[in-house]
Amino acid sequence: MALVPCQVLRVAILLSYCSILCNYKAIEMPSHQTYGGSWKFLTFIDLVIQAVFFGICVLTDLSSLLTRGSGNQEQERQLRKLISLRDWMLAVLAFPVGVFVVAVFWIIYAYDREMIYPKLLDNFIPGWLNHGMHTTVLPFILIEMRTSHHAYPSRSSGLAAICTFSVGYILWVCWVHHVTGMWVYPFLEHIGPGARIIFFGSTTILMNFLYLLGEVLNSYIWDTQRKLPAAQNACGHSDSPANVIFKD
Asked: pLDDT by residue (tens digit) across 23-42?
């Protein structure tokens, strides 16, 4: 039998993100008081995305529980909308942005932490909170992808959406620099305009790649698992593969 039902996992993950966000916002750092506040950091934006996503997951589970066996077509229609929103958020935002934050942060950190996370921040942000923002995002989103199939949007619309997000954030970072005269991330101060253009272009390409990676990974997991005789429909949204969780 399953060690932990997927619904319980989602509630636990949502509560962990709420705790991380509350603890992060409670920290009195100089950067939080400047233009843009916490919203100029992709890490914080990603935490909000993940919290909203898992909130929608929990809401979907509750709606499924309440509508099960009711035969109310309007409730079922609303449930399908919630499932579609949940799937869209994972495909376009939660997976690519979450993986991007984890990968880029730790790659730059390993090269030179002062370029992305100066040692001075250790005086404000405890180690567990740093990992909550920059590490656990990845296993949490992989757990969600593993426990429920998610229907991806058309590739063109999905890529257009992640490109819009990427370009929008880059423009936001540039605007913050225009207003304050300082770049959000320290390493941007040490590279020239040409290198910044290359970096911003590369991050947009990477975001698109991560979107495609999520699409492939989602298909691989569920195309493989459909072949297992032990597969059972346990999440209760419908009889579709979107709600299968596998048990030991």
From this structure: 998 888 887 888 999 999 99
Give tens-digit pLDDT for 212-229. Answer: 999 999 999 887 666 655
**Tens digit of pLDDT for each residue in 99-135?**
999 999 999 999 988 888 888 888 889 999 999 999 9
State the SS3 of the chain. CCCCCHHHHHHHHHHHHHHHHHHHHHCCCHHHHCCCHHHHCHHHHHHHHHHHHHHHHHHHHHHHHHHCCCCCHHHHHHHHHHHHHHHHHHHHHHHHHHHHHHHHHHHHHHHHHHHCCCHHHHHCCCHHHHHHHHCCHHHHHHHHHHHCCCCCCCHHHHHHHHHHHHHHHHHHHHHHHHHHCCCCCHHHHHCCHHHHHHHHHHHHHHHHHHHHHHHHHHHHHHHHHCCCCCCEECCCCCCCHHHEECCC
Radius of gyration of the chain (CA): 20
**pLDDT of res. 225:** 61
d(CA 13, CA 141): 10
Whether residue 236 contacts residue 68, with contact meaning beta carbons closer than 8 Å, is answered with yes
Compute φ and ψ for 243, nearest 5 degrees.
-125, 20
137-147 helix and 42-67 helix, angle to the nearest 10 degrees: 30
